[in-house]
Amino acid sequence: MGGSGGPRGGTRAVGLGASALLAAVVVGILLLLTLGGSLVDLVTDGMWYQSVGYAQVLWTRLGTQLALFAGVGLAVLLVLLLDLWVAARIAPPPPPGGGTLRHLWDRLNEASRYQGGPRVFGPFGPAEPIVVGGEPLEPPDLTPLVTWTLVGVAVLAALTAAGVAAGSWDTVLLWIHRVPYSPTGAAVTDPVFHLDISFFLFDLPFLQLVQGLLSGVLLAALAIAAARHAVAVARGPLALSRPARVHLSVLAGLWLVVAAAGYQLDRLNLTHSTQGVTVGVSYADQAARFLAYDVLSVVAVGVAVVLVVAAFQRRWWPVAVAVGAWLVLWVGLAGLYPAVVEAVVVKPNEQAVEQPYIQNNIAMTRLAYGLDQWQEVPYQGSGQLSASAIQADQATFANARLWDYRPLGATIDQLQTVRQYYQFVDVDADRYQIAGQERQVWISAREIAAENIPSAQSWVNQRITYTHGIGAVMAPVNEVTSDGLPQLLISNIPPMSTGGAPTITQPRIYFGEKQNGWVVVGAASPEFDYPVATGSGATSATGGANQAYTRWTGTTGIGIGSPLTRLLFALRFRDLNLLISDQVTPHSQLLFNRALADRLPLMAPFLQFDHDPYLVITDQGRLVYVQDAYTTSPYFPNATPIDPTTLPAGSGLAGSSFDYVRNSVKIVMDAYTGQTTMYVADPADPIIRDWEGIFPGMFRPLSQAPSWLAAHLRYPEDLFDVQTRMYATYHVTDPATFYTRNDLWTVPSEPTSSQQLPLESYYVEMRLPGGAAPEFLLLQPMVPTSRPNMSAWVAAQMDGANYGKVVVYAFPKDTSILGPAQIEGRIDQDPTISAQITLWNQSGSTVVRGNLIVVPIQQSLLYLEPIYLQSTSIQFPEFQRIVVASSTAVAWGTTLQSALNALLAAQASAGSGTTGGSTGPPTGSTSPGASSAPSASVAPPASISPSSAPAGSQLPSQAPPSGDVKALVAYADQHFQAAQAALRAGDFARYGQEMDLVKAALSQLTVLTGASPAP
């Protein structure tokens, strides 16, 4: 018998081994299917990070997340399992005859038998008892089931805590590498707690994370212990044992201690309170809530002590009293007491009581957004635009914007796309030295559009042949051809530069703004470079007629010569061709994540990015993109957060709310190689200094940037939009005025007609009032809330040593300067302009009105608005007119010079009382008729400088005749006609002199006749 049992036992062992092996294989396959995709992504991501030089970002982030996930998860799991083990260990054994659950079961059976039969109660009333072997079924032992269930709960709680910790990797790293707010180490403190601001940026978020995790873990431990002790009670006597009471009391006490720490963190977090007049600590917070949190912290610790002591003494009434007192104090101190203070102390005298807290909010908000560095200067702005002012600001008028980037982009797309597989993604404003003068230009890159590639189903075309865009288009902001089209300084394929524009030596764009897919370079077939004109006879090295070819020579791609590498990326992209195609050679490289919006968030996931990266031509003729990046935080104490919904659509800062922002990083990416360099633009920013400690060597000082970059740095629009919207409220520094809220500003943004484009901040090349020379500026008019007149205009400087300075030119409170909406209304009301626009805006055409530009000229304002005409069937806007306006008149013309002539004449007509409309052009200027064609181009600066005086306009030697009304009238008429002749000739100096004589004659006439001069 023994011998026969041996083989059967061996067979059973072999069968068990085979089953285990099969189960292991199945589990392995399932894990591979489940995690294989993530593993492939991780490996290929690592290869990409290595190729671009930012591997430390991936491994530091992943290493921190894994360490936090494993460390916190394991620690929490051990604590909860230990908690469960302790609960099981101290559970008393069931007494003889069964415990509470058995007695209940027996009593139910007794009741059933008493009612007349061997029945037990089921869920729906009396039921037949379950009999096994002639004996009634015993009540089940739920201990194993509950224990394993609680183990599952512990695992789930540990995974949750681990996920929270891993997701907060940046908070942990910022705390570990925390730096003081000031780079000098000097304390810059909040006004209430007198703690360095870095405490609120780095320490407080970390402490709140730790407190939240501890609180959650202790609650989970308390729940697990309570469930396990409940099972023990069910198996034993209906009472908790002393060890069980102590166990639960200690856990509850620890949770109360953590809650007490949470009250103190809540006290610090009142720096973000919204209970008062402003954000931050208010009077009621400091007078009532501080006390409430302090008392509740002490009471919570006291309740914890009472709870533990009661567990030993088995006297629960002190616990009930302590908990009751805690609840009463919580309701009374945290809820009712602040409300009473608010109603009794604050509301009757709110302005005086809250004044120091309003001052705190003003100071900290201005510091958080960098508004404390803005300079506000008075500006009259009510002066009359004069010929002498135009004469003095020739350089400003030489760069006056006739082209808005939105219609210009559509026009360039029609003129310069050349092939359907190219696209102009964006048009950027910048300035260049052209023919020895700094000029403002629009520039746009011609990128490849993968979705429009010919034979789109061809894998070779999509991935190997059409890999890049080529060249750029540059147009000055102030020049128009005779056809109403932009005057291009750089155009065509390959790009050709004219008129002193910079030469592009490397025009190919492999990396840019447009989101195209991955491509293979260095393949067996060459890459298409650009089309060659038919009949030119040009061929490529491979013999392709009318097409030029090239090969990428960069080294920043991922080598895919290895079969394993090709397999990995074939799996990642789910593209078998990448693995089997004979186009891929041992020298091939893979380029992916080629768009700025794809690659930069991977390289620097802790930064936010401006919505408008811009193209720059370097001094060596290479194309690069410059991207502004920001550090933000929602933890700045006593500062008001920005409302993201108030920002323009598409803003890179329009995501979550924040109360601190700095343009701390400038990023440069080469359009050919994709090489990306990050420069620290604001070394005083504590957040970027913290990240520099986390990722050493990742950032370079801006002083190490190439010299050409300084000439093309821009003050970023997204930051400017945030700051101007905050300054609209926080230009007020007096707490009393701030409290009354009667000096609120806003940003004009809503168009007044369907033809008008949305208003926004704009780049201009102009001379600031009192400035020595023109400079590149970012401007934004400001208007009072609920009123259309203008209250100020803001100028951000960005040339040379002035980069980053912002000047606010504030109008006097007792004046009424016309705002953009009012000027738009005057344009709409002008009969000549309105009639012509109505005529154009029909019969298959649409009028587009560009952004209204406000240009300060000395102590007066000039408003410019270009008018474009486009077909309703195709977006091809053509420039038609430029509208100019001053505080007293509106005019337009086909050139800026003719429009200014018309405006000066209209002002003169209004001032002298002569007959004529305010917008009518002077005699000899171009009439804005429907059939008028634009002139060749806007006049350069020399065209608006004084010219020789026309014949017959020489100034008389004698003074105005006195005492003779008829002679004075003739004298005034003679010199008014001479002034008009000078105006038509562009001689603004002579025009002003003649008009002075006219005014002198009119003054004498007023004295002789006793009449008032015509307005």
How are the SSEs ordered, and which strands pair?
Layout lengths: L1 H51 L2 H35 L10 H15 L5 E3 L2 E3 L3 E2 L2 E2 L6 H25 L1 H8 L20 H39 L6 H27 L14 H31 L3 H30 L3 H19 L6 E4 L8 H6 L1 H5 L6 H12 L5 E3 L3 E7 L2 E12 L10 H7 L3 E2 L1 E5 L13 E2 L4 E2 L10 E2 L9 E3 L5 E5 L15 E4 L7 E2 L3 H11 L3 H4 L8 E3 L4 H8 L4 E2 L4 E4 L5 E11 L26 E11 L5 E5 L5 H9 L4 E3 L5 H4 L6 H14 L4 H6 L4 E2 L15 E5 L8 E10 L7 E6 L8 E5 L9 H10 L1 H10 L4 E5 L3 E5 L2 E12 L6 E8 L4 E4 L2 H17 L52 H20 L3 H22 L6
Parallel strand pairs: 5-29, 23-24
Antiparallel strand pairs: 1-2, 3-4, 6-8, 7-8, 8-10, 9-13, 11-12, 14-18, 15-16, 17-18, 19-21, 20-21, 21-22, 22-23, 25-27, 26-27, 27-28, 28-29, 30-32, 31-32, 32-33, 33-34
Helix pairs in contact: 1-2, 1-15, 2-4, 2-6, 4-6, 5-6, 6-7, 7-8, 8-9, 25-26
Explain how this protein is built.
- The structure is a single chain.
- The chain is an alpha+beta fold and 1015 residues long.
- The strands form ten sheets. Strands 5, 25, 26, 27, 28 and 29 form a six-stranded mixed sheet that branches.
- The longest helix is centred in the N-terminal third of the chain and has 51 residues, at 2-52.
- The protein is flat.
